[in-house]
Design a protein that fits this description.
The strands form three sheets. Strands 1-2 form a two-stranded antiparallel ribbon. The protein is mainly α. Helices cover about 55% and strands about 10% of the residues. The protein has nine helices and six strands, in the order H-E-H-H-E-H-H-E-H-H-E-H-H-E-E. It is globular, with a radius of gyration of 18 Å.
Length: about 200
């Protein structure tokens, strides 16, 4: 997955060191201290499964860009990483809700959920992570809506999202953005000149 980097952990001096490493890598990739959507997609796609992850990268960028100015600065970047690592289940789910709520109106429609699920499934298939006979993006979206849309108004509110995910392990795993559960690896490619895997 590109250069391996450990995520910040709050253990004394090592947290400061890790934070410095994140800053250094961010500044090397983005000398201005800001990253645009195009740059983010390029780096995210290069680090995951290529162009198949572009749609998901766009949604991640939109969620990282807290102030909506079209760029992500280092502070927005580190705040999100720290929260996703150190945050409570509720905080992670609140962040995930913003990811699924594409238009930012405070509710998730079936179409918004399906868009994100389809983007995630494209990445999973491209990375060879999807197992045979797994639910499709549509089936997964329908299952989530059946369980979370308690008032049957065809949208999921923030409260429904959090309460439903906390009450159902499968839904929480599907919806919570938890970097410790993400295992995206590129399949081994055959080096034809040497006949070895690389």
């Amino acid at each position: 997955m590109g250069q391996a980097a450990t995520l910040p952990c709050r253990k004394g001096e090592s947290y400061v060191t890790e934070l410095y490493e994140w800053f250094r890598k961010f500044i090397i990739e983005c000398p201005s201290g800001l990253i645009t959507l195009h740059e983010f997609q390029r780096h995210f796609c290069d680090g995951t499964v290529g162009s198949e992850s572009a749609e998901y990268a766009e949604q991640l960028f939109r969620t990282l860009d807290n102030n909506g100015d079209g760029v992500v600065d280092f502070r927005e970047y580190v705040m999100a990483i720290s929260m996703l690592i150190e945050g409570s289940a509720v905080e992670k789910l609140q962040w995930s809700f913003k990811l699924y709520d594409k238009d930012g109106d405070g509710a998730i429609t079936r179409e918004e959920m399906l868009d994100i699920m389809q983007a995630v499934y494209k990445m999973s298939v491209a990375a060879a992570l999807t197992e045979p006979n797994q639910l499709t993006a549509e089936e997964c979206t329908n299952r989530i809506f059946m369980r979370l849309d308690k008032d049957n108004n065809a949208i999921i509110s923030l409260n429904e999202f959090i309460e439903g995910a906390l009450d159902d392990d499968w839904i929480r795993e599907m919806l919570e953005c938890d970097p410790s559960t993400v295992k995206v690896e590129r399949p081994l490619r055959m080096d034809t000149t040497l006949g070895t895997h690389g």
